[in-house]
Amino acid sequence: MNAALLPLVVMVPLISAALLAAVPGPRWLRGVLLLAPNLGALAAGVLLIQATADGSVYAHGIALWQDGIAIPFVVDVFSALMVTTTALLTVTCSAFAIATGEDRARFFGSLVLVLSAGVYGALLTGDLFNLFVFIEVMLLPSYGLLAMAGALRSLRGGRIYVTVNLLTSTIFLAGVALVYGVAGTVHLGELIGAARESPLVAAAMAVVLLALSIKAAVVPVHGWLARTYPATSPAVTALFSGLHTKVAIYAIYRLYALLFEGDATYLWIGLVAFTVTMAIGVLGAVGENTTRSILVFHMISQIGYILLGVALFTPLGLMAGIFYLIHHMIVKASLFLSTGAIENAYGTSRLDRLGGIARREPILALVFMGAALSLAGLPPFSGFVAKLTLVSATFEAGQWIVAAVAVAVSLITLMSMLKIWGGPFWGTEPDSDGRSDREVRSGSAPGGVSAPARPTVQPKVRPAVLFPALVLTTATLCIGLGAEVLLDLSAQAASGLLDPAAYLEAVTNR
Amino acid sequence: MTLAITIGALVAGAVFLMLQRGMVRIVLGFVLLGHGVNLLLMSAGGTSRRDQPLLSFGSPENAADPLPQAFVLTAIVIAFSITIYMLTLAATGSDDDTEDAS
């Protein structure tokens, strides 16, 4: 494989974003410009997985500048898996946005493309400072998307989102400065094991990890997520849920593995924080009354599960965590998209305003149920495999309390999913009064396609709107049935994290 | 030491402003915080060597570390653009910035 092609994964979406902003084309051309770069990234991700599945690592310094000056791009199987999943999510969420007409908003496509370019960059970079820059590249368009999705309703959410993220970025930058000050480098290859040897670097890295934990919405710094994500449009929520917090999770995995080399001294902090995250997240979902805010709280709870892998830092734990991460990105986006389809057709996501959807939209109901069962961890979906490996990893590590909490939280997740299932899907249809006085959606698509239907017309979810969620639910079913493939890849990724020798060799010998 | 005290003062001011209610004060707090962190980045490269960071124009003993300067430049641009965006948010929409009358 030619490692010099790696930066293309970031460059192609950026160029396409510029084209999309500059060229006024017919709608199909804009759709192609929006979808093609990420379909390309999907193909590139699959090729990268093939190339790195044997544990090899490829690295490239842009423009062949010498080490420490160039922007380093590194890919191993972990980042290749993440790139593939990210591309899949961006494609499906863009397709959803095209189907609902949301992409007609000026610059919507460009912002999504820049966002995805930032995510790819953050996943592929091998340098703390470039990680910061790419996270910013990812965040800046998301501010625009958030503001675009709704003027007044999301203003408060937008303010919280921007302030929290700017604060977090600044803390992250301060952490990078401290690391540079005490270690003299920000290149991950040169920093391997640095925090294990020097408590100063460990303290500096703690600042970086704190910033990443805020971005990943770990309890007790999760409040911003629950207040901002429901304030935007369904497609954007799905996109953010799949990408933003997950990049932070990826970075926590990568940095803890490389810099601390799994130093067991600090693992208990993670175990406590992530167990509390699981419990608090799912309890927060109990009091919510719209489908999307329930799902957002589930997301916080699941972040605890995913990060347990790094807090255990055993081969099985890391493997389970990585598998869980991939599974969760797909399932959560599927749930957001299928409830987004309801919101798009019926104009609301309030539980008490919806009912009887299962009878009217059997396919949508199946898609939602599949993803919900997968999230709760029932066979044959991927969630079962993910939860099973994670719980057995906690047993293996002797963390009985954590395992018990994980199982209990899983049951509560299922219960609150039943709340959505029993209300909008299976419950009785509200009378026409209930639907006619529904609140005016300020976050509706600018194209006007999703304008609330008149009470006399029965709204119906169109197949094109449903299709993206269907693809993702099928994906989780496939991962569940053919779990062996992804488990092998996750195990390979975990061994890459446990033993960074290949990483070190790739980034230093070019 | 001067630098450390300055950074401390800037961050303290930033925290104080950010705990206020109005959006504009929060933005000003972020401006202070950004400056504090930029100074922190600069001090990470060592402040004793103050020559130009280009070796062809000076001696390696006194040349400043170019890496923190590049970092700070990037950070300034990012912080600047987000500050403008936040000011736009502060100027649009509802008036939840108004102080409680008391």
UniProtKB/TrEMBL annotation, chain A:
Its main location: membrane. It comes from the Bacteria. Pfam families: Proton_antipo_M (PF00361). The keyword Cell membrane applies. Residues 432-441 have a biased composition (Basic and acidic residues). Residues 126-413 form the NADH:quinone oxidoreductase/Mrp antiporter transmembrane domain. GO terms for cellular component: plasma membrane. GO terms for molecular function: NADH dehydrogenase (ubiquinone) activity. The chain crosses the membrane at residues 31-49, 81-100, 107-125, 131-152, 164-188, 200-221, 233-253, 265-287, 294-316, 322-342, 363-385, 397-418, 464-483. GO terms for biological process: ATP synthesis coupled electron transport. The keyword Manganese does not apply. InterPro entries: CPA3_Na-H_Antiporter_D, NADH_UbQ_OxRdtase, ND/Mrp_TM. It is found in: Cell membrane; Membrane. Keywords: Cell membrane, Membrane, Transmembrane, Transmembrane helix. It is a multi-pass membrane protein. Residues 429-455 are annotated as: Disordered. Belongs to the CPA3 antiporters (TC 2.A.63) subunit D family. This is Na(+)/H(+) antiporter subunit D.
UniProtKB/TrEMBL annotation, chain B:
It is a multi-pass membrane protein. The keyword Acetylation does not apply. The keyword Disulfide bond does not apply. It comes from the Bacteria. Pfam families: Oxidored_q2. InterPro entries: CPA3_antiporter_subunitC, NUOK/Mnh_C1-like. Keywords: Cell membrane, Membrane, Transmembrane, Transmembrane helix. It is found in: Cell membrane. GO terms for cellular component: plasma membrane. Belongs to the CPA3 antiporters (TC 2.A.63) subunit C family. This is Na(+)/H(+) antiporter subunit C. It comes from Actinoalloteichus hoggarensis.
